[in-house]
Amino acid sequence: MSILDSKIPEGPLAEKWSKHKAAIKVVSPANKRKLEIIVVGTGLGGASAAASLAELGYKVKAFCYQDSPRRAHSIAAQGGINAAKNYQNDNDSVYRLFYDTIKGGDYRAREANVYRLAEVSPNIIDQCVAQGVPFGREYGGLLDNRSFGGVLVSRTFYARGQTGQQLLIGAYQALNRQISKGAVEMYNRHEMLDLVKIDGKARGIIARDLVSGEIKRFGAHAVVVATGGYGNVFFLSTNAMGSNGSAAWQCYKRGAFMSNPCFVQIHPTCIPVHGDQQSKLTLMSESLRNDGRVWVPKKKEDAVKLQKGEIGPNDIPDEDRDFYLERRYPSYGNLVPRDVASRAAKERCDAGFGVNSEGKAVFLDFKYSIDRLGKNVIAQRYGNLFQMYEKITDVDPYTEPMMIYPAIHYSMGGTWVDYNLMTTVPGLYSIGEANFSDHGANRLGASALMQGLADGYFVLPYTIGDYLADEIMTPMADTNAPEFAEVEKDVKDRIEKLYNIKGSKPVDYFHKKLGQVMWDYVGMARNAEGLQKAIDMIKEIREEFWKDVRIPGELDNLNPELEKAGRVADFFDIGELMARDALDRNESCGGHFREESATEEGEAKRNDEKFTYVSCWEYKGEGVEPDMHKEDLVFENVKLTQRSYK
Q1: What is the pLDDT confidence band of residue 646, given thresholds at 50, 70 and 90?
Q2: Which of 161, 266, 318, 636 satisfies CB 3.0 to 4.6 Å to 406 for a cystine?
Q3: 266 in helix, strand or coil?
Q4: How many Å apart are CA 216 and CA 280, to the nearest integer?
């Protein structure tokens, strides 16, 4: 049985990180050249980590399954990135960002990790400005800020509605600089399929060349996984279709604990599902809630007419509109956190007030801000988002309200890591969305980009040296070692088993079935009966998958369906663990809403006496129930209270 050591430093909260950096080991410049690090994933976390580690002098091998690091899913982030700079002079501070993040996560995150995130956040903005990221600016040239859900200050830096793209370009150019210097070996179109351990330590990976189909071995002194989240277990999500949880899942099967897998985020402002042939959903930035007002009709008969297409939204006068977020949560209004806004939208639609033909949408209306500020100001702030919405829906949001509905967006759960971002496997690190560490049960908007860049630029480059200082005399991993051969055989056997099923149904058939089960029973609302049903149904679909999936194409060649099959096979296992974790956590917190644990007003009700811990699942073998360990969460600086945004 593994013992969890979070390595949280002693001392006052505001001094933990600086004291920790002063106490941990450092590798000299000459010795860094002897050490090699594998970084898997080239989004904001992976690209910034690979660039920073190479800049320090380590030899780095970076991997991405896309044709270019620039196609990482970080590019899709729209609204902004948080930082505690107090540029608006509205009483923001590092502590306020820390507190908002702890509260927004419903008190299910480590104080020390969250405070460090807030502490390094101002450095991220300086770094990105130096890289040329074109943040929005005020008339006088100073960087502008806007608000996001769950906060009462303006601390979100943005580049119109394409902040993720601009930040990724900054990290990408830093990475490219190191590639051109020979400090980073870049492996595009390579997918990590398994982790190799030697003497209990992470010493390499097995990857598949997605162009040729060749299985390859890569060795290193440490491995960093920065491969994002597992939201596509639901099939329909805001994630890119290629986003998957397989790399982290293979690490789990090699001994890395998986923490809080039931914590996934439902984003309230997505374009609603239309028909049954969609392959993904489109996110509309949370920043839109700064100037858009969310509403449904007050009268059910008006909602029915909208659903039938007999009237349009502009036919309903203001006095017959229910601005339900402003009504329920007057202090925060339309800027309540994502989990609160999502559940409120579902409640209105379930009550029969939905506004599209399926009754699964609410309005996000900019009429009032256009009247107040003018169309040009709104176009300057959100123009590309409005254009994107119109291209997808053929509705002009300048003249008609947007329709939105909640959708799966982000994974707060992930690989367990200690304060140094190392997993329970020595030498294996997990950063960004791939780990569990900084958000708790719900992520505040504009914090994903902050965490990815904080981990890659300002945390991992310090903490990985503490481990590598003891590996200086360790020779480079021999890829001819029996450990590599054994793991490679496991990978090949699994691929061949999948390919040779020769069934009758395509991969997407099974993925859609799994996604429907996940959405129905492990989605926005959960209960014990439904979760147990989900576990049973997932087992049935998985069994059918391994008997009847059809993978066309060649085994040893370019084959996207083969890639997809391996990822979906992992999604079955991930989905089952998510349901198992949700069943164990009989409380409501953040994005995890158990119907058995709600207030009289229908809000999430935590149980701090029993569930103030991180769930840490240990793999025990194929078909064997995993063991659950607990890392107790200790709150010394904030008082645990039931969240209220009223």
Answers
A1: confident
A2: 266
A3: strand
A4: 31
Prediction pTM value: 0.97
Closest CA to 37 of 49, 25, 29, 26: 49
The CATH number fitting domain 268-409, selected from 3.40.50.300, 3.90.700.10, 3.40.120.10, 1.10.150.20: 3.90.700.10
What percentage of the chain reaches a pLDDT higher than 90?
Answer: 95
pLDDT tens digits, 382-428: 989 999 999 999 999 999 999 999 999 999 999 999 999 999 999 99
Q: What DSSP character marks residue 8? A: P
How many CA atoms does the CB half-sphere of 27 hold within 13 Å? Answer: 25
Inter-CA distances, 386 with 49, 93, 215, 306, Å: 33, 32, 44, 22
Contacts of 355 (CB under 8 A, 6+ apart): 296, 297, 303, 306, 307, 313, 361, 362, 363, 403
Q: Is 338 a catalytic residue?
A: yes
Nearest alpha-carbon partner for 526 in 602, 596, 590, 604:
596
Q: Would you tell me how many other CB atoms lie within 10 Å of the CB of residue 149?
A: 27
Beta-strand relationship, 414-415 and 258-259:
antiparallel
Query: Domain 482-607 carries which CATH code?
Result: 1.20.58.100
Domain boundaries, the chain: 268-409, 482-607
pLDDT at position 1: 39
Exposure b/e, 583-612, CB count within 10 A at least 16 = b: bebebbbbbbbbeebeeeeebbbbeeeebb
Over residues 419-442, the mean pLDDT reads 97
- DSSP, collapsed to helix, strand or coil, labels residue 206 as strand
Strand, coil or helix: what is 365? strand
Mean pLDDT of the chain: 96
Dist CA 429 CA 637 (whole Å): 28
Catalytic residue chosen out of the listed positions 338, 343, 542, 567? 338
Q: Whole-angstrom Cα distance, residue 171 to residue 186?
A: 14
Looking at residue 644, its pLDDT comes to 83
Could you give the CA distance from residue 240 to residue 306 in angstroms, rounded to a whole number?
Answer: 31
Q: Judge whether 60 and 184 are in contact, CB under 8 Å.
A: yes
- Dihedral angle, C-alpha 311, 313, 319, 322, nearest 10 °: 120
pLDDT digits (tens, 9 = 90+) for 568-579: 999 999 999 999
